[in-house]
Each structure stands twice: as C-alpha cells, then as structure tokens.
Amino acid sequence: MRDEYEKMTALPQLLTHISQTRPNSSAFNYKENNEWKHISTEVFVSHVVKFAQLLQNQGIQKGDAVGILSPSSPFWLMADFAILMNGAVSVPFFINESEEHVRFKVKDANLKGIFVLSDYEQKLNERFTKFIEPLIHSFSFIITKNILFPQSIEFESKGGDQLMKSYVGPHLLEDDSATIIYTSGSTGQPKGVELTHKNFMAQIQSITKLFSDLSPQDNVLSFLPIAHSFERTLIYFYISRGTSIYFCPDITNIAQCLQEVEPTFMATVPRLLEKMHAKIIEKAQAKTWIKKKIAMWALKRALKKPKTFLTDLLVYKKIRTLFGKKLKYLISGGSPLPLDMYRFFVNIGIPLYQGYGLTEACPVITTNFINRHKVGTVGPALPDVEMKISSNGEIFARGNNIMKGYHNLIDETKHAIDSNGWLHTGDTGTIDKDGFLTITGRIKELCKTSGGKYVSPIPLEEKLKKNSLIDMAMIIADGRKFVSALLFIDREKNNGALKNNLNHFIKKVNATLNEWEQIRAWHIIFDTPTVENGELTPTLKLRRKVIIEEYHDIIEEMYTKKDNL
User: Fold this and answer.
1) What H or E segment, with its residue span, contains residue 120?
2) Long-range contacts from 392-395, C-beta under 8 angstroms, 24+ separation
3) pLDDT at 136 over 70
4) pLDDT at residue 156 above 60?
5) Where are the domains positioned within the chain?
6) pLDDT score of 468 more than 80
7) Does domain 267-325+327-443 match CATH 2.60.40.10?
8) Neighbouring residues of 377: CB distance < 8 A, sequence distance ≥ 6
C-alpha cells in the first residue's frame, strides 16, 4: 500500500490522486436544515481551487499564516486545502476558544488573514466580534461564508481534476510547514506545533498499512473538531481512501447521526464513551424489576468478562445498535481510556481500539488494531515509527511524523527533540515483549506533596469518576500536606444523601491507596467544567491551572480547616 503514497510530497496531491482513482459522489457530507447535503469529489476539488485563487488574489504567499475559524465541515477542509495549495500555513481555531488564546495565536502566528465559515455566524459574531474586530487591522482579509457563497450554497462546478492541474501555485517541498496547531494549554501557555507536509504524509502511509480496507463504499462519522490534530490526521487519511465523510453538526446530535450514517469507522474520545456508559446504566436502572435485574447483571459482567450467547441475546446486541449496524473500527484517542470502560465496550462486542499520541507526533505514535489488540494497552508503534522507553521511564518516539518544532520557540524545541531525533513525549510507560505500550503516567502532571511523596492525579481521578454521581474530579496535591479533590457534580444529582454517599465511596477508594495518596479532603462543586467557561480544553481535558485559580479560596479552605488535618 505504501507505493500509492510514497511519491507524494504534499497534501494537495491527495486531491489529484483521489479525483483520478477514487471519485465519490458523496465524498463530503454535512447537515443543513436537518437534511444531509452531499458534495462529490469533483465538486469539492473545484471549490478548493476557487478558494486558492481567492487567496492568491489577496496576495497570500508561501509561508504566510492563514487562520480557519469554523465548525468541522467540508468548508473547513476547502479552506485548509486552498491555504496549502498556496504554500501557506493553516492555523486552526476552536469555535469555543477563549479570547486570551485567540489573541495569543493571532499574534504568535503573525496571521495574514482568516476564514470565518459557519452556519451560525450570529453566534460567532456575538462571541468573537469583541476581540476579532480590534485585530482586523493586522489582517489582509477576513473571508466569511457570505462572501464565498452569497446566495444559497449550490455545488454545480465540474472539472475539479483539470482545475487542480491548471492551478499555478508555489512549488511545495515535503519539509514545508503545512500547519501550526497550538497545544491545548491544559497546564500553561499554548505552544504552536509546526507540522510539515511530510509529517502528515508519513502518518497517512502508516495508518493505511493498518486500515487498508477502508474504501469509497465505507462511511465515516466525524464529530471531533478538525482543529485538533487527532481528527485532522484521520480526516486526511479518510480523504486518501475516497471514503464518504459525514460531519456531525453538534455532539448533542451524535446519537441521531450514528443511526442515520451507520459508520464503519469513527474516532472518539474517552469522555463520550464514559457518558454513553452512564446513559446505558441509567436506562437499565429505569426498567421494570426483572428486566432491570437482567440488564444490571449483564452490564456488571461486561466490566470483567467477554460476551456469551445469552448476555449478547438479552442485552449487548441492543446496546451495539446505538453505534449503527456496520461499525468495524472505533478508535479512541486524545486521553487515556479508563481500563474498565475499555473492557466494557470490547466485552459487549464493540470493535474499540485505543491508540496514543500527541500533537508533536502528528499525532499518532501507537494504536491497537484488528488482530493486534491488547485491552489495557495503547497498542504497538505505527509502522515506520520508532519507540523506546528512556532510563527514567519516559516514552520517546522518532520518525517522519515528528514535528518540525515549536513556532518561535527554539529552546523549547531543543528540549523536546534531542540531537538524535527522539521526541521526548513527557509521558511514562512500559513496553511488553510483544511491543505493546502501556501508559503509566505523565511526568509533568506528577504532584509532589510537601512531604516529598509523588502522587499521580489521573489514576486517582479515574477511580473517583467510577461513581455515577461524580461527573468530573480534579486531584490537588502539589506542594500540599495531603491530597484533596474537587468533585464536579451535576446539580440534578443533588439530594439529601449526597454527602453521605460520597463520604462512604471515598473511604472505599482510600482503602485501595497508599497512605500518602489517600484523599483527606474534598469539596462538591455544582458548576460543571466546560470549554466555554475555560475550564476544559477543546479536547475535554481539565485545565488544571485555570481551575486552581478559579477555586483558589475553596482549595485554601480545605487545607486550613482543622478537621481536615
């Protein structure tokens, strides 16, 4: 399969390739007025060329940075490929990004212009006008959807392949930067990761070796933001296979989209799987007495044991229909998947495969896949990616997928990538005799108590989230006398027995922990973290620094109360 892509040096060549080898009448799909609209490969490519010509007319040159502020859609991709065809660098923004991050990225990337493409521009205007308008003087242009499509969006253009061949843009080299993706900033200031055309092409080649059966006859459902490196790379892979891509307009509509699209391939994050599991339990508990007994027995069994004919017939088969009837691959990435969640979905018959990576690796380093799968691990290294464990347990990776560097940060780049080309991931792990990687923690997120003991917060937070009352949890221990926790709980779950239930639960958790890890103080918070309030990253990870600042007084009170000492 490698021969198909090995001669390609830049991402726009994918469009010429699929136009000639895998044309698809419904290659790109989006929802408008609750109906699916379909865009063919040919029409998509023709519009990319129109976008590219528009940028060329705006004076965009090779190396210039151009932003994209849009929900995930075919229009996002049109803008992206148009930027790349001009040799420019695309800089994605998240729809729900904070004002502080937008301002930082515009300045740091020296943005020359921005695409603002949205089906709900009024919402964007309300949120972004106050801090986009003051920056307008620094842009050469702002292109909105209304400029590109002044009337209703009609796709009638033809001859996309010929237009691609006739378009005269700069010559692209494999080491040219394709994008600057800013890290989520969960622990500090965002860093701009520069990824090259070679980085993405290397990922496409490697992923194709594992999932070569994906074809134009398959459907994929995309609901994660393309602004994130995980979904971005997978989208390029889908395009390379000519597969039909359906963009879910809103994560709240994912259940409906799953039934309508019936995807064969989909990427997800642990947070969605945890929410689905909670809903499954909730529905089971709402059943009549005998049905509830059977369902809960089967669901608890799935946490430890594979399905049987009886459990499948009575319970699991119905749950699988939530994902449609054709799912072959469900890939989980972005953050660690709790082991019990991993076992649960695999044991009920969902083809779930966990992978691992980071933006600096474009982003995939390892993944489980069919016939090479161990639950609890994140799989072996991708083909053409090297991996090793350093003397202090840190995971190192090397290959053509490793970033060019951090934008404007020479010293940080040297710290992240050593002289031998190894990326220091900051994560710790172990590799078994079969080459499967297990993540054990993150160096930067280790907390050191004032007594000198190290505490890894993520495993503790996962233990706490097993309680259905707790939506999210954050451990606090760094520089403190003992471990404490903020427990984020849905306000609807508040009842008179809440504190007693949690107190009993935390005592049981503490019984499984070392003395210095035990949670000696905790506080309930009914305002759940969201991306909009700045307490979650766009990939739904806790922004620890922000939360610590927001709840400073509450945290300090936990440590000053005498009964907690």
Assistant:
1) none
2) 392/428, 392/443, 393/428, 393/429, 393/430, 393/440, 394/424, 394/425, 394/426, 394/427, 394/428, 394/443, 395/365, 395/425, 395/427, 395/428, 395/429, 395/437, 395/439
3) no
4) no
5) 2-264, 267-325+327-443, 446-564
6) yes
7) no
8) 354, 368, 432, 436, 437, 438
pLDDT digits (tens, 9 = 90+) for 475-489: 999 889 899 999 999
* Cβ atoms of residues 322 and 276 within 8 Å: yes
pLDDT for 128:
57
Quote the CA–CA distance of 442 and 423 in Å, as a whole number. 15
Q: What is the Cα–Cα distance from 154 to 161, expressed in whole angstroms?
A: 19
Tokens of 183: 């890290």
What's the first-to-final CA gap in the chain, in angstroms? 62
CB 450 within 8 A of CB 390: no
- The reply to whether 2-264 and 267-325+327-443 are identical in fold is yes
How many C-beta atoms lie closer than 10 Å to residue 234's C-beta? 26
Given CATH 3.60.10.10, say whether it is the number of domain 446-564. Answer: no
| CA distance linking residue 448 with residue 453, whole number of Å | 5
Q: How far, in Å, CA of 532 to CA of 29, rounded?
A: 27
253-286 pLDDT tens trace:
899 999 999 999 999 988 889 889 989 999 999 9
CA distance 281 to 276: 9
User: How many other C-beta atoms are found inside a 10 Å radius of the C-beta of residue 516?
Assistant: 14
Structure tokens belonging to residue 245: 């891509």
pLDDT at position 563, please? Answer: 43
Mean of pLDDT values over 523-539: 84
pTM of the model: 0.85
- Give dist(CA 340, CA 526) in Å, integer: 26
Query: Residue 201 corresponds to which tokens in the numbers above?
Result: 């092409």
Class for the domain spanning 2-264:
alpha beta
